[in-house]
Amino acid sequence: MWTCRNCNARFAFDEVEAQTDESGFFFICRDCDYRNRLMNIGPDAAGRPQLVQRDDE
Ligand SMILES: [Zn+2]
Fold first, then answer.
1. Containing H/E element for 35?
2. What's the domain of life for this entry (predicted)?
């Protein structure tokens, strides 16, 4: 689950689409449009980025 840092809404990983720009990965909260930062911890076995939320962001 990902949790919005602004409104505390929780989303399953397939509910929101991770996006990326020049500053990194993020997802947009569907409830409040807050931009939540994500961290890429490296490719998984299929070569896709594994995105996690840092506890302090
Ligand atoms: Zn939110």
1. strand 35-43
2. Bacteria
